Amino acid sequence: MGDVHRKLAAILAADVVEFTRRIEQDETATVIDVKNLFADVVAPIVAARHGRVFKTMGDGILAMFDSAVDAVWAAHDVQEATGEEGKLELRVAVHSGDVLIDDDDIYGDGVNIAVRLQGLGEPGEIIISGDIYRTVHRKLPFQFESRGIPSLKNISEPIEVFAIVVSTAATTMAPLPAKEDSRPSIIVLPFSNLSSDPEQEYFCDGLTQDITTELSKFSELFVFAAASAFTYKGRLVRPSQLHYALGVRYLLEGSVQKAGDRMRLNAQLIDAPSERHLWAERLDRGISNLLDMQDDLVRHIVSVLSLRVSDREMDRVSRKETASIDAYDAFLRGAQAFQTQVDKIAESEVGLEEAETWFRRAIDIDPKYARAWGWLGYTRMNRVLEGWAPRDAAGEAEIFAKRAVALSPDDYDTHWALGFIYSATGRPRLGLAEFEEAQLRNPNDAGMLAEMAETLTQLGRHEEAVAQIRRALTLNPYGPDWYHWMLGWALHHARDYQTSVTELERIHNPSNRVRLILAANHARLADSCADKDSNEHHLRETKRYMTAFLEHRPDWTREKEQSKLTFEHRADLEHWLEGLSLAGLS
């Protein structure tokens, strides 16, 4: 076993109705349909309701939630979504109990009971245990029907059972947590590569990212992060499913075919709830006209959505960083190398070295390419922070980023790079000023908002940091683990230790840094807890996380920790070090 621990959780169990009969009729089609159902419908809904899918087993799926209310809402959403689909039906059950978590799996009576309850339901129903009922029945707009205390196979304890029939639930759903903004929302799905060369994937991905960025600069739009869109890459997913999972109203999808010096770009804008096509266009031009083609796409979308955009704002969005398609191509390759390094959490600097090489090539082609200068500085600073470049290389990173800002003061990306470097070198006030300039020019970039949150934490503005990272998670519901790391860090300093624990435990493979914050959280909770059982639980968790941390860093001390951090207020540093002392760090 790996990292094994217990917790109280709400478990959702679901299985496909008449799976065996379907397998007998058409095995291949049934397996594909079930996999698509779990991946494209159930998993996004679970994520949108703050849950985590732990296991799929042929015709069944298990998910875990910290909140019983979230679990029942997810069960409701799943039944409504599959009802709309009209192909596969599910039985769904929710139970609350103690579970044993072992890396990628969960065990225990809580899981067993949820699976047994699931078998009691009819298609379209949700079966819940009495424990869940008593927690949620006053909080949710559903009709509950008692099913008594049935006998459950291999379960000795009596379990009271209730049913929710989705068709009798309130017709108006609670807002999906992933989207609580009144502006029209849009997601740009990854453009398909129709070229014969598979290496052109970087080009299609870069185009997707760039169009997302262009749209995100409009303050009247709510633009989902490209990172969320890429979770759907290569999957067949219906627009209405995306609407249900994310709350998104519009989606842009398309394809790219690049051959020699020509490129064909197909794009279509779709109303997600109705799946109605609002606009479609095919652009067939020379590759040198790519940047103009992007402009045309953005202008069409703005026109179709009837956004009130001034000529000045359109001009700002349309302004291009380079006129050289070769420089742009090199930049896209560098951005792909950098992102691959981040996605794989690589243990070497090979990806960052490759990214720098491509950014330098872009600059050699076009010395006034501001964004390439900014990314070069940002990448160099990341190498310093990872220990793969000397500390004095931070000065080079700052020079590169300042040159980027000087070349393009209206580009949010250049201000973001400089703000990150200022904050990483212990100057959070200067960093915040640059982040605010970036946010003014682009209010929708989730990654920028998440990094800005760390600067706010440095400055002691903890509640603002929490709000900022939650906004980042709204824009990017499938945000990377470091978003939750950042949120847990801000919540710890806001003295909300339990919520910090909840957020950090969402991280699938916690880093050593996360273990340290969890140890400090549990130590604080143990120190303030009067209940004996809860106190003992938090003490055990403190010891578990601190032991795991010290296994990786046996040389670490509070003194070394103090030398690593920069806080605007001495009280924040003392609060953190005191928590580590309570957790047992010498």
Structure description:
It is a single chain. Strands 1, 2, 3, 4, 5, 6, 7 and 8 form an 8-stranded mixed sheet that branches. Strands 9, 10, 11, 12, 13 and 14 form a 6-stranded mixed sheet that branches. Helix content is 54%, strand content 16%.
Give structural attributes.
single chain, 586 residues, alpha/beta, eight-stranded mixed sheet, six-stranded mixed sheet, 54% helix, globular
Short description:
By secondary structure, the protein is of the alpha/beta class. The protein is 54% helix and 16% strand.
Q: How widely separated are the two ends?
A: 29 Å
Oligomer: single chain
Given helix and strand content, the structural type is alpha/beta
The largest pleated sheet is described as: 8 strands, mixed
Radius of gyration: 25 Å
Number of helices: 24
Strand content: 15-25%
The parts where pLDDT drops under 50 for at least 5 residues are 167-178
Number of β-strand runs: 14
Helix fraction bin:
40-55%
Molecular shape: globular
Topology:
Elements: E1 4-16, H1 19-25, H2 27-48, E2 52-57, E3 60-65, H3 68-85, E4 90-102, E5 105-107, H4 109-118, E6 125-129, H5 130-136, E7 144-146, E8 161-165, E9 185-188, E10 192-193, H6 201-216, E11 222-223, H7 226-230, H8 239-246, E12 250-259, E13 262-271, E14 276-286, H9 290-304, H10 311-318, H11 325-344, H12 350-365, H13 370-385, H14 393-407, H15 412-424, H16 428-441, H17 446-458, H18 462-475, H19 481-493, H20 497-504, H21 512-528, H22 532-552, H23 558-564, H24 570-583
Parallel strand pairs: 4-6, 9-11, 9-12, 10-12
Antiparallel strand pairs: 1-3, 1-4, 2-3, 4-5, 6-8, 7-8, 12-13, 13-14
Helix pairs in contact: 1-2, 2-3, 2-8, 6-11, 11-12, 12-13, 13-14, 13-15, 14-15, 15-16, 15-17, 16-17, 17-18, 17-19, 18-19, 19-20, 20-21, 21-22, 21-24
